[in-house]
Specification:
The chain is an alpha/beta fold and about 325 residues long. About 25% of the residues lie in helices and about 35% in strands. It has two domains: about 160 residues, FAD/NAD(P)-binding domain; about 100 residues, Polyamine Oxidase, Chain A, domain 2 (Alpha-Beta Complex). The chain is built from eight helices and 19 strands. The strands form five sheets. Strands 8-3-2-12-19-18 form a six-stranded mixed beta sheet, covered by helices on one side. Strands 14-15-16-13-17 form a five-stranded antiparallel beta sheet. A four-stranded mixed beta sheet has the order 1-11-10-9. The structure holds flavin-adenine dinucleotide.
């Protein structure tokens, strides 16, 4: 049973969001002896690093892979490979101006994307399935209340939901922030992504590594979860629509969206679809991240916002942002 947790007497941190940003922050703080409580509204951890089962098939339905552009993240990936939760999936080859071919690895979770957040969450104090609805500061501590009526407090706090959801939480809590910071946060725009999970009647015609990316049309990519090894027994594909299609059709009814996406998909995969589910990611990826790796909204008690909207885009940026926010919190205690 969930209990109210008050960490206010210790150097401690409340982290809203158990995606990669929140979990990286939580691990770093715990490693340094700080008491941490991570809260997430979803039933499990991982946020957009998501895997879902429906009927007899399994799908990665948020991010499909991630890249690395820094030695720091490459070192994290090497650790995850050693832990057996990540592997290189495929490589993109590009031709550079200085007449070299450059190949960049795409990494996947092993066996599925949620393996990474699940391992990162091991040993952490995570309470999932309860939305934080209000945040306030009192007695030099941050306090939150949740949909289920719980109350938690700690001496610092990091907010890692997609920025529009963080802004909603701040507004509902009547927390005012410096206008330049508020404007910067309001300028951060995410692309939606309509995602179709489809169970196929036979093995789809797709490349051997199971991924097909598009430059034109309404499809961004099709991924084969069976070839990826996530859905070993059942042919199952994940179809991501483009940002433009997803924006136009975000509120269109399911049947129409699915018909439009399958009209383009079926001639490619050359097999039928026996059942499907449509998922609407309102915030899939940030278009232009904020240049800072996190923002500190308040000092004493310290409040920061972090996540993939800061620094570098995607999983790498979110992980880095969580880590940098944690380091700032550590400095605030010393
Ligand atoms: C369809 C799709 C395709 C993508 N493709 C790629 C790609 O190719 N490469 C790449 O690197 N990245 C990709 N991404 C983006 C990548 O998944 C994200 O950048 C990264 O996972 C973000 O991590 P995060 O921790 O910042 O946020 P999230 O994973 O969104 O975590 C935030 C968490 O906060 C929780 N939360 C929100 N509000 C509250 C509240 N009030 N109370 C409690 N909890 C709350 C949410 O439930 C969520 O778990 C893709 C994402 C999607 C959806």
């Amino acid at each position: 049973m969930a209990i109210d947790i008050s960490l206010e007497r210790e150097p401690s941190c409340l982290i809203v969001g158990a995606g990669i940003a929140g979990l990286m922050a939580a691990r770093e703080l715990s490693r340094k002896g700080i008491q941490v409580l991570v809260l997430d509204k979803a039933r499990g951890v991982g946020g957009r690093m998501a895997t879902r089962r429906f009927e007899d098939a399994v799908f990665d339905h948020g991010t499909q892979y991630f890249t690395s552009s820094s030695p720091w993240f490459q070192a994290r990936i090497a650790e995850w490979i050693d832990d057996g939760i990540t592997e290189e999936w495929f490589r993109i080859r590009t031709y550079e101006m200085d007449a070299r071919f450059v190949s960049a690895a795409r990494y996947r979770g092993k066996p599925a994307m949620t393996s990474i957040p699940k391992l990162l969450a091991t040993g952490l104090n995570v309470q999932a399935g309860d939305r934080v609805t209000r945040l306030w500061s009192e007695n030099n501590c941050w306090h939150v209340s949740t949909e289920q009526g719980l109350h938690h407090s700690a001496s610092t706090c990091i907010l890692t939901p997609p920025v529009p959801q963080t802004l909603e939480l701040l507004a509902a809590s009547e927390i005012e922030i410096e206008s330049s910071m508020e404007e910067a946060l309001m300028d951060l725009v995410y692309e939606p992504c309509l995602t179709l999970l489809a169970i196929c009647e036979a093995t789809p015609t797709l490349p051997e590594d199971g991924v097909l990316e598009f430059e034109r049309g309404n499809l961004r990519r099709i991924m084969d979860n069976q070839r990826k090894g996530i859905s070993p027994d059942v042919p199952a594909i994940t179809i991501h629509a483009t940002g433009a299609f997803s924006t136009i059709h975000f509120s269109t009814d399911d049947e129409t969206v699915v018909r439009l996406l399958l009209e383009e998909t079926l001639p490619i995969i050359r097999c039928g679809v026996r059942s499907w589910q449509l998922h609407r990611w309102r915030y899939s990826q940030i278009l232009t991240p904020h240049p800072a790796s996190f923002l500190q909204l308040y000092d004493r008690p310290t409040l920061a916002v972090a996540g993939d909207a800061f620094g570098v885009n995607g999983v790498e940026g979110a992980a880095r942002s969580g880590m940098e926010a944690a380091n700032m919190i550590l400095r605030s205690f010393s």
